[in-house]
Every structure is written in structure tokens, then in C-alpha cells.
């Protein structure tokens, strides 16, 4: 267990609130976005409102800032699989790298999460996103070299488990491999323009 990722009071409250909403308010057969702060800051009502109208499916956000792959696995059952979603969109791993952990740690925990979702929600479509690029030097200890290495392992996992793999590196990165300035405000998190380009692509793969 990573001591660095122990939940503070705010994160515990978010996790508990997600559990309560998933068990008492959410409907089965909808779409869930599951991940860290990049997911938490995604306004699903704004970006996926058109999709919801067209498909009749609600979109739930289950992102918690600072989350790492092991924590995501720990809360997957209470926050996500209990809803029996039609689709889960996963984005996780950048914080692991920020703590100094590399691809094997990331992929092993994500593999456990994929196995859990497939076991408990066999008809669920899983969309696994590659870890987004950052601006080197402006995102803590994260580096695009380690991110690219981790993404190779995530791509292999997606093939192994037959899940949809979306890698937006080619869209989000500039010629040096850094996250484009127009798509971020701090070198790590997406701006509205960044969410716009990822939304357009993700929406094409939702049921």
C-alpha cells in the first residue's frame, strides 16, 4: 500500500459520498467516468449532455483528485460496479508516476480493476485511456518518458482483456511530446479546450 496515497478527510468523504450515491441514487445501465483529478474536474453535464440526450443514458463522474491505481481498485466495487454500468471510462496512473512508481505498478493495479469490472459487470464496455502527457518540469516528478513506457503496458492490457484503448497522446502533445499549452493551465490538468478534444473522441465509443 502506498502511504503517500492515504486518503485525507476530504477524499474519504468524496469516496463515501460516491458510494452512497451509487447505491441510492444512480441507475443501472449508465456511463461512469472513473479516475483521478483529471476526471474529477470533467464537467460531464456540459461535455456529455448531448450524448445523454441522444442515447438516453446518464453520465456519472467518480473521479477523486490525487487518486492512484491501487486506490482506484479499492473503491471500484462500492463506487462503480454496484451500479452495473453500461460503460466505464478509466483514466488513472499519472499520480503513481508522480510518486515515483513506474509502469509495472500502474499496469498491475489497472489489471486488477479490469478483472473486477469484467467479473461483476460482464456486459459492461470498458474504455481504458492512456495516461495523458504532461509538460515536463511543470508536473512534479512526472515525465513523458515514463508515461509513454506505462502506456505501452496499458495498451498490452487492453489487448489482453479485449477493452477499448484510447491514446490521445498524438492529439494532446506538441512536437516535443509535451502537453500542448492550449490544452492545459498548469502542465498537468486539462483546460476546457483539452476536454473538448477528448470528449469528441470518447463520445464516439460510448454505447
Question: Could you explain the architecture of this structure?
Answer:
This protein has a five-stranded parallel sheet with strand order 2-1-3-4-5. The model has no long low-confidence stretch (mean pLDDT 96). It is 48% helix and 11% strand. It is α/β, with parallel strands linked by helices and 207 residues long.
Mean pLDDT: 96
Count of separate DSSP helical elements: 10
The Rg value, from CA coordinates, equals 16 Å
Helix content: 40-55%
Report strand %.
5-15%
Sheet with most strands: strand arrangement: 2-1-3-4-5
Main pleated-sheet profile? 5 strands, parallel
Order of helices and strands: HEHHHEHEHHEHEHH
Quaternary class: single chain
Instruction: Return the structural class.
Output: alpha/beta
Termini separation? 35 Å
Number of strands: 5
Low-pLDDT residue intervals, each spanning 5 or more residues: none
Q: What form results from the Cα inertia axes?
A: globular
Amino acid at each position: 500500500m502506498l502511504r503517500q496515497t492515504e486518503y485525507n478527510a476530504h477524499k474519504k468523504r468524496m469516496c463515501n459520498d460516491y458510494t452512497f450515491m451509487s447505491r441510492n441514487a444512480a441507475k443501472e445501465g449508465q456511463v461512469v467516468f472513473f479516475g483521478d483529478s483529471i476526471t474529477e474536474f470533467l464537467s460531464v453535464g456540459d461535455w456529455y449532455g448531448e450524448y445523454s440526450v441522444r442515447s438516453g443514458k446518464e453520465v456519472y463522474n467518480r473521479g477523486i483528485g490525487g487518486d492512484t491505481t491501487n486506490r482506484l481498485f479499492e473503491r471500484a466495487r462500492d463506487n462503480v460496479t454496484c451500479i452495473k454500468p453500461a460503460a466505464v471510462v478509466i483514466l488513472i496512473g499519472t499520480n503513481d508516476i508522480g510518486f515515483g512508481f513506474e509502469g509495472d505498478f500502474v499496469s498491475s493495479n489497472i489489471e486488477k480493476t479490469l478483472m473486477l469490472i469484467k467479473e461483476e459487470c460482464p456486459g459492461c464496455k470498458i474504455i481504458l485511456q492512456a495516461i495523458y502527457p504532461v509538460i515536463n518540469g511543470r508536473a512534479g516528478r512526472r515525465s513523458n518518458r515514463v508515461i509513454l513506457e506505462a502506456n505501452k503496458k496499458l495498451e498490452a492490457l487492453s489487448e489482453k482483456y479485449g477493452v477499448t484503448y484510447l491514446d490521445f497522446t498524438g492529439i494532446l502533445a506538441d512536437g516535443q511530446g509535451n502537453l500542448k499549452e492550449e490544452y492545459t493551465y498548469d502542465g498537468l490538468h486539462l483546460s476546457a479546450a483539452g476536454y473538448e478534444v477528448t470528449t469528441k473522441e470518447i463520445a464516439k465509443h460510448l454505447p
